[in-house]
Each structure stands twice: as structure tokens, then as C-alpha cells.
Amino acid sequence: MNFENIEQVIKLIKQNDVKKFKYKDNEYEIDVDFTEAVSQSPAPQVTQATQQTESTTSTSDSQSSSESTQGEEVKSPMVGTFFLQDEKELTDPIIEVGDEVKKGDVVGYIEAMKVMNEVTSDVEGVVDEILVSHGTNVEYDQAIIRVK
Hints:
Mean pLDDT: 76
Keywords: Biotin
Protein name: Biotin/lipoyl-containing protein
CATH superfamily of the largest domain: RNA polymerase II/Efflux pump adaptor protein, barrel-sandwich hybrid domain
Radius of gyration: 16 Å
CATH class of the largest domain: Mainly Beta
Largest sheet: 4 strands, antiparallel
Oligomer: single chain
InterPro entries: Biotin_BS (IPR001882), Biotin_Carboxyl_Carrier/Decarb (IPR050709), Biotin_lipoyl (IPR000089), Single_hybrid_motif (IPR011053)
Strand content: 35-45%
Order of helices and strands: HEEEHEEEEEEEE
Distance between the termini: 40 Å
Strand order of the largest sheet: 4-11-9-6
Organism: Staphylococcus hsinchuensis
Number of domains: 2
Number of helices: 2
């Protein structure tokens, strides 16, 4: 990935008022976070991808008490198009209502910049509702699946 591509990605992020963005392929990883305090530098980081990293944010901190009675949600890690399998034609979805999911299980894919990115569950339980249809555009941090 060259510097010009990185600049274009940052411009798109700023134009669309995205606060967090993460891109990862076999060679590179870009993690942009504009939510940090003003005293810290909000400069994006580009690193060689050497190992799988997991998010350390907790979904329970941002949930209200009414949401916690309805179950936990798997949220979109990026902006893009959500798919229930790695192909655009829905023939065999990865998950369906009633399926059991564990932390780290792939529950779908988000296509962003012509790359299919895995969406993994950060909660455990039984799929209660799939909130987003196959092929639908999603926003960052949008609820995709509800798990009880």
C-alpha cells in the first residue's frame, strides 16, 4: 500500500466524519482513531500485520439497561456492505436465527474497498435476530446481530 492510497483513505474517513476505521490485509494494517483526546496525536498508524489482534472494547459499557434485557449485539467494525456469506449471491448463510455463536466466530462479511472483511462475534449466545439483510450497507458501530 503506497502513501497516496493511505492519504485517499484518510480523506474519505474525514469527509464522512468516521471516528474509527480499521483495514487489514495479509501485508498491512491501518488503524485510524479520531476519538482520542486532543492532547494526544490523532495520527493514523500503518503497521505490518504480524498477528491477529482482538478488540478490547466492551460492548456492555455502551449498552443501556433496556438493551441488556434484549440481549447483546454484534456491531459493524467498519462502513461497507454486509453479507451473510463470502459471496454476493446468498445460497448458504454462515449464521441463521437460532444458531449458537461463540466469541471469535465469523458471523458475516463486510465488503469495503473491494475487500471482504470478516465480522467476528465479540459475544456468546444464541442468535436471536439478524438485524441487517444480506447485501445491505452498514455504518460503523451499527448493530448487525442480536444474541441472547
